[in-house]
């Protein structure tokens, strides 16, 4: 406002004759605005009445000559000026008051007051200001006002008839005492009555008549201004918004889009660079390991300390026996320091990286494989290759779904693709690096079983089991799971476990009856029950559960014939101690949830959950890293760790809230009881004893001895007679309902299927929290039985039943004294047989059920025949059936392997392998270094593969018929994939899957176990080398012990399903068996213990080293 007045003064001063009228009109409007604004807002905010505003207002009015111009407009403006001056006079600021008073005094001295109403208005306003100054005793203000009052009274004395109404009024004409006289007079009744009766009413009337119309017009003016302002504001905002949109479209969005693209490109480049650097580092490390290993050129250098982790390889009893080298080993010193509150001297590691480290430890890196330059394909395989390419072109995508691959350590996001021939999974996780991930591809023909699974109590997962014991746990969106499952069943023509509930699946499998009849072991039965009930190694929240079976962990010797050493299997572990039963029952009966959400329960924890699994397996990776991640980046305190088997049992007996059952590893895996990785697990608070290996019961001399006796106890007569009672609790009719309440076997409601509907939770954070709660509490297995489980037959009852059933098979080892030999003439006259095989996977049509199996025989002259063979049957008078192949008797129909064998090659059984269905014969030893495939049905060669650089000396195949391994004089071994068509082998892939190096002499014996991911080869110089099958990595070199200085050669190798390795050696023609007892674990790869030795037909088991 000050600036507006200042500008108006300047405009009027500098205006020309042409512009002066416009500036004058603007000035008049401005004065009206100032008057209206100050009269409205100034009453609320006195600070608006500034000296600057007064000065500029007076200057502007003087420049317009308002006080002395004629005309209605100027008269009204003079009235506005008087009102403004009176308003400034009323302010508490003395300078403003003095300045306004002086100006008004000067105006009154030169201006006539012609109107009686105007005189009343001026006198009333000045008197109000004067009286306030007297009341407030502000002498300075009073002194300013007295001259003005003297001038005003002299001007209006006659006009207002003061001589008549105010006879006592002090004289205003030069009286020196007027200053004091009027101070006294203004409080007199005469003065007060005059003002109240004559002056004040006219003053108010004048104010209304004079200024009310101006107020109304100014109100309309302000309204118009406001409306114009708002229109202008909206227009400006609209234009600004439109401009902003145009700016965003033309500049911001292209820039942002380009910026995002550049950021993505830059981040992708960084990720690619990091991935490439990591891949190069891994390749260098792999190359270094190859150079400094036992068979490398720098083998004399100091070897790195070996560390181990659990492999995912399983044998056919679903035992994860194998330990493999952990090349990404972390000693977790930071976790130990954080537990002990010692701080960390090194840079702190983000706790989230601990899980990432555990993931890396189980990821597969294809870049660690050697890049092999194989010879060009031979002409004989060209046709096969063309057929394969034609078949691959026919492969079509059936469906794809986003899913999650659930592993022990992580949940990997990705995409599953199902084609007419294969099943693919593509890892799309952000942590995936080049060459490292969970991608997989498998032929549909290798799928053995597909089970519907739960994940976080949701029926949304599938678990796929392959022929080689590999398995994958995939979680889908709930509606997508069944679609993928049905399509997989349609594409997989072989018999699969179709859409059956776990209860129906168990019933259809016949496992229960087999167990009752003692056809399978207790361990195998429990493992199969776990599998059917949805328990899996891939999800820690649904890990397989096994029972505590012993109650004696303090005796010096374990007497399995004494029932008192066993746990009562009819009760939950928490109430095996009778003292705990009463407290558990009272807790259940007294529990009430006010909300009605939580049902009554006996136990707030569960017998199987992720924390419990990590508790037991803390000494082996990746469970060590998972435990640390669960404990927020540190080890748990030593007293809460699993450090003593007797101590753990005693805790269970004393604490009814601790209900942990066992895991399968307690019955086959001694390595989890040893701290071979040297982790710092802390010290016990009371004894200050350092926690290292698990303290064993007194009756166990070593971890191997504990596993041996513990497994023996599991298979004992007492456990066999009572195991069904524990099955009723975990998998059977006592799992839920009134029977569970009576058995004190009810757990927290969140552990049961159907207790929580995760799909109904829309909030992502809340759903994640509930999933975490389910994972922490554990999950109850699917209920498999709703009636009591049958009792297992005793050994005597089984023997009695066998004698009653004439057609039941006889165990040869139980009837050794009754063995008889039978002679069959004319199989191959005067030519010895070198290979006789009864293939194990022989198919019979429904019509030919009970017909003889095929027995393949190969003679030393390379003649082969397929004979009929029917095992022992009491219904046959000759006790067995042998049907001779008619082609071997007639020289015209005899069938021989094509092509001569190489000179000097001894035709032996090791040169031949028969496919599992008895339709193909694989042979080596040929003069052209080939591996040949002969059809036993057609009697001719159907495949010839030349990849070795010298004679093929030995062959071997795995148990599942997926891979074939060949050894050669060129010191290499090759792993071949057996091609399948409709589930039946039809030949070999033209190129080997792996080429295995390491020998320096002729390879004379080979064996392969795909399920344990190991290929074993022995050479003439007595060296045994172990490689992996899937990646072809060199793992270990073994030399059987030899007390003689004479050269030793390997004759045969064998690997059992449980990972036991048998080596048959020869020293100067004397055969010796070297047997390695113990699983394919750290002991096989890195142990310095000697192999046991069996020689001269004597069986000498060195049980001091290993007892399994």
UniProtKB/TrEMBL annotation:
Residues annotated as domain BEACH: 500-792
GO molecular function, one term: protein kinase binding
Repeat (WD) residue spans along the chain: 996-1037
Keywords assigned by UniProt, alphabetized: Endoplasmic reticulum, Repeat, WD repeat
A Gene Ontology biological process term: intracellular protein localization
Transmembrane domains' residue ranges: none
Name by which UniProt lists this protein: Neurobeachin-like protein 2
Species: Mugilogobius chulae (yellowstripe goby)
């Amino acid at each position: 406002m000050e600036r507006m007045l200042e500008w108006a003064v300047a405009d009027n001063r500098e205006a020309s004759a042409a512009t002066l009228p416009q500036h004058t009109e603007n000035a008049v409007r401005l004065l009206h605005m100032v008057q209206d604004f100050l009269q409205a807002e100034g009453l609320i905010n006195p600070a608006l009445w500034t000296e600057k505003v007064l000065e500029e207002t007076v200057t502007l009015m003087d420049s317009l000559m308002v006080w002395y111009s004629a005309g209605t407009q100027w008269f009204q403006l003079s009235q506005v000026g008087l009102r403004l001056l009176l308003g400034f006079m009323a302010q508490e600021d003395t300078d403003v008051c003095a300045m306004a008073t002086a100006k008004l005094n000067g105006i009154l001295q030169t201006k006539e007051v012609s109107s009686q109403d105007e005189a009343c208005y001026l006198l009333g306003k000045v008197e109000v200001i004067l009286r306030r100054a007297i009341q407030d005793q502000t002498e300075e203000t009073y002194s300013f006002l007295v001259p003005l009052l003297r001038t005003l009274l002299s001007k209006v004395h006659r006009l207002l008839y003061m001589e008549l109404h105010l006879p006592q009024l002090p004289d205003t004409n030069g009286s020196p005492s007027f200053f004091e006289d009027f101070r006294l007079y203004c409080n007199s009744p005469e003065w007060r009555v005059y003002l109240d009766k004559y002056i004040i009413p006219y003053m108010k009337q004048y104010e209304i008549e004079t200024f009310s119309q101006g107020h109304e017009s100014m109100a309309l003016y302000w309204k118009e201004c406001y409306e114009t302002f708002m229109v202008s504001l909206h227009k400006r905002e609209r234009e600004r918004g439109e401009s902003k949109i145009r700016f965003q479209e033309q500049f911001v969005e292209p820039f942002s889009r380009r910026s995002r693209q550049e950021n993505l490109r830059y981040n992708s480049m960084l990720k690619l660079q990091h991935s490439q650097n990591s891949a190069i580092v891994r390749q260098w490390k792999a190359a270094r390991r190859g150079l400094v290993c036992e068979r490398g050129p720098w083998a004399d250098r100091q070897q790195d300390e070996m560390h181990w982790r659990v492999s995912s390889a399983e044998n056919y009893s679903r035992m994860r026996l194998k330990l493999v080298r952990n090349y990404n080993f972390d000693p977790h010193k930071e976790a130990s320091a954080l537990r002990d509150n010692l701080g960390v001297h090194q840079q702190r590691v983000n706790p989230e990286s601990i899980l990432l480290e555990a993931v890396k430890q189980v990821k597969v890196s294809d870049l660690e494989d050697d890049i092999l330059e194989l010879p060009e394909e031979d002409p004989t395989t060209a046709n096969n290759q063309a057929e394969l390419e034609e078949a691959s072109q026919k492969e079509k995508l059936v469906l794809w779904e986003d899913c999650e691959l659930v592993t022990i350590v992580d949940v990997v996001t990705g995409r599953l693709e199902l084609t007419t021939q294969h099943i693919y999974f593509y890892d799309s996780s952000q942590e995936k690096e080049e060459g490292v991930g969970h991608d997989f591809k498998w032929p549909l023909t290798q799928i053995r079983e597909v089970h519907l699974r739960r994940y976080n109590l949701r029926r949304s997962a599938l678990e796929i089991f392959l022929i080689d014991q590999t398995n994958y746990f995939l979680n889908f969106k709930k509606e997508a799971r069944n679609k993928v499952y049905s399509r997989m069943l349609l594409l997989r023509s072989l018999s699969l476990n179709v859409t059956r509930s776990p209860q129906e699946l168990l019933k259809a499998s016949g496992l229960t009856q087999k167990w009752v009849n003692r056809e399978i072991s207790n361990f195998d039965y429990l493992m199969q029950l776990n599998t059917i009930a949805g328990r899996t190694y891939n999800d820690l929240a649904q890990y397989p559960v096994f029972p505590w079976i012993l109650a004696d962990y303090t005796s010096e010797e374990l007497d399995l014939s004494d029932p008192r050493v066993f746990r009562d299997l009819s009760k939950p572990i928490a109430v095996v101690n009778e003292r705990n039963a009463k407290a558990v029952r009272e807790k259940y009966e007294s529990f009430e949830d006010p909300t009605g959400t939580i049902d009554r329960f006996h136990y707030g924890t569960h017998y199987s959950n992720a924390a419990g699994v990590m508790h037991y397996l803390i000494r082996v990776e990746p469970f060590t890293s998972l435990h640390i991640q669960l404990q927020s980046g540190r080890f748990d305190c030593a007293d809460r760790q699993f450090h003593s088997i007797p101590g753990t049992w005693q805790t269970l007996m004393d604490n009814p809230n601790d209900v942990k059952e066992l895991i399968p590893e307690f019955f086959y895996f001694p390595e989890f009881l040893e701290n071979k990785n040297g982790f710092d697990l802390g010290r016990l608070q009371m004894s200050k004893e350092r926690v290292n290996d698990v303290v064993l019961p007194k009756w166990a001399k070593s971890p191997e001895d504990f596993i041996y006796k513990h497994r023996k106890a599991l298979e004992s007569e007492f456990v066999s007679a009572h195991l069904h009672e524990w099955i009723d609790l975990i998998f059977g009719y006592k799992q839920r309902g009134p029977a569970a309440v009576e058995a004190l076997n009810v757990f927290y409601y969140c552990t049961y299927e159907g207790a929580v509907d995760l799909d109904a939770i829309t909030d992502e954070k809340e759903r994640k929290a509930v999933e975490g709660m389910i994972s922490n509490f554990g999950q109850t297995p699917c209920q498999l039985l709703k009636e009591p489980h049958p009792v297992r037959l005793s050994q005597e009852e089984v023997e009695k039943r066998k004698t009653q059933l004439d057609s039941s098979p006889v165990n040869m080892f139980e009837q050794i004294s009754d063995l008889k030999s039978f002679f069959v003439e004319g199989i191959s006259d005067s030519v010895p047989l070198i290979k006789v095989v009864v293939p194990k996977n022989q198919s019979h049509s429904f019509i030919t059920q009970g017909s003889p199996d095929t027995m393949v025989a190969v003679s030393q002259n390379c003649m082969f025949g397929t004979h009929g063979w029917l095992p022992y049957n009491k219904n046959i008078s000759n006790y067995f059936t042998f049907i001779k192949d008619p082609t071997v008797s007639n020289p015209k129909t005899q069938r021989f392997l094509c092509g001569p064998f190489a000179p000097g090659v001894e035709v032996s059984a090791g040169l031949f392998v028969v496919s599992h269905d008895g339709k193909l014969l694989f042979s080596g030893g040929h003069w052209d270094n080939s591996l040949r495939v002969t059809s036993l049905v057609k009697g001719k060669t159907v495949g010839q593969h030349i990849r070795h650089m010298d004679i093929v000396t030995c062959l071997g195949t795995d148990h599942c018929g997926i891979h074939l391994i060949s050894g050669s004089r060129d010191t290499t071994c090759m792993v071949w994939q057996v091609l399948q068509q409709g589930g039946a082998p039809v030949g070999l892939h033209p190129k080997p899957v792996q080429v295995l190096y390491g020998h320096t002499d002729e390879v004379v014996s080979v064996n392969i176990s795909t399920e344990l991911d190991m290929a074993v080869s022995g050479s003439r110089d007595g060296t045994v080398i172990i490689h992996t099958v899937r990646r072809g990595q060199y793992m270990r070199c073994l030399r059987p012990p030899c007390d003689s200085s004479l050269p030793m050669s390997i004759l045969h190798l064998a690997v059992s399903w449980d990972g036991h390795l048998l080596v048959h050696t020869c020293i100067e023609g004397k055969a010796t068996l070297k047997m390695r007892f113990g699983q394919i674990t750290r002991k096989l790869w890195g142990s310095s213990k000697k192999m046991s030795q069996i020689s001269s037909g004597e069986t000498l088991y060195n049980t001091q080293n290993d007892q399994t």
